Amino acid sequence: MTHSLDDISPRAALVQIARDFHARGWMAGTAGNLSAREDDGHFWITASGRPKGKLEETDFLLMRIGDGEVVERIHASNKPSAETAIHRTIYALFPEARACLHGHIVEAAVAADRARKGAKGLRLAPIEMIKGFDIWQQNPKADLPLFENHLDVARIAKDIGARFKKTRPAVTALMVRSHGPTVWGASRQEAYNRFEILEFILRYQAASRR
After folding, report:
1. What is the DSSP string of 64-123?
2. What is the pLDDT of residues 58-98, one digit of tens each?
């Protein structure tokens, strides 16, 4: 991987992230999706159904944040990822967000499944790694926002928008039950780092229960 994911083009950075996440088992097969924001109100997002371990820079679409319309389609067969509505919601809510990464972490799915029915969040262990989310309090009580899964992804995006408009999350991440985490950051590198940090915290919590 390059020294910084912000030193290369958005699509090149997302290709590197996809191959890295696939190698770690976080983007098995065609699962997961990645996006990066441009400076003009648009964002690049992975095309649906592309194997993430073999992703190329042509496997993306350029979307408009304002209305969700496709601005550029490199291949005629490219279709927006199913979770495009979630990425668009994050970018609309948080203008500082420059990248949004969604993968599938076993420990995250297990933690969400263990959460009580109707739970709105998962308490994150107050270990040193949580500082990676700019949380500097002693023994912080920070929750990973938890959302219910729906076949209609637009409904999930609507739920995210409704909650986050009222209350800003403690961490730049969320979890959809029986699905996977989505993490965003003020740069591509920050989003990547924070995805790693979230995975570490959830893996620690899973290990501590054993």
Report:
1. ETTT--EEEESSTT--B-TTHHHHHHHHHH-TT--EEEE---HHHHHHHHHSPTT--EEE
2. 999 999 999 999 999 988 899 988 899 999 999 999 999 99
| pTM for the structure as a whole | 0.94
Digit-coded pLDDT (tens) for 156-193: 999 999 999 999 999 999 999 988 999 999 999 999 99
Superfamily grouping for domain 10-209: Class II aldolase/adducin N-terminal domain (3.40.225.10)
Length of the chain in terms of residues written: 210
Among 71, 63, 1, CA closest to 36: 63
Q: How many CB atoms lie within 10 A of CB 100?
A: 27
Instruction: Report residue 119: phi and psi, to 5°.
Output: -60, 140
Phi, psi at residue 89, to the nearest 5°?
Answer: -65, -45
Kindly give, in sequence order, each residue whose CB lies less than 8 Å from that of residue 171, ignoring residues fewer than 6 positions away: 124, 133, 135, 142, 143, 144, 145, 194, 198
Residue from 10, 180, 165 nearest 94 by CA? 165
Q: How far is CA 206 from CA 107, 110, 183, 210, in A?
A: 6, 8, 19, 7
